[in-house]
Amino acid sequence: MKKLTFLLIFSLLTFAAFAQSSDEKAVASQVEALRKAMIAGDRASLNDVMSDQLSYGHSFDFVQNKAQFIDALVTGRAAFTKIDLKDQRITVDGNTAIVRHRFIADTNDKGKINSITLGVLQVWKKTNGKWQLYARQGYKLPNQPR
Questions:
Q1: Is 44 within a domain?
Q2: Dihedral of CA 47/49/54/59: which sign?
Q3: By residue range, what is the domain housing residue 51?
Q4: Segment 43-76, tens digit of pLDDT
């Protein structure tokens, strides 16, 4: 009886760990889809990966909603030539996920290439079985120019 109880508990814990891992992988996939869409300025992909209630906070005290952020990328007012994400950590709790990473990017500002390195906090929400970016806040890392 003890062996059966142990096997049952072990199976349930293994299943729970697998389910969490599955959600973490799904969120990571959406983060990657967002990264690629930001570089491409792809309106359809950006629209798909973001919640209609998006609050996108920049490191320089500027917040955009979904339409404003997508428009800036599609029109080229905000243009990325490269985006790398480092030290990414994902925590899933039910239908909410928190993603933290370093955001290392090159921007094209009217022909002038600039490099930025920021810390980023993202909040993802699972709605109708799909993970979408709900909120994002960039912040300057210690020892970075203000």
A1: yes
A2: negative
A3: 2-140
A4: 999 999 999 999 999 998 999 999 999 999 999 9
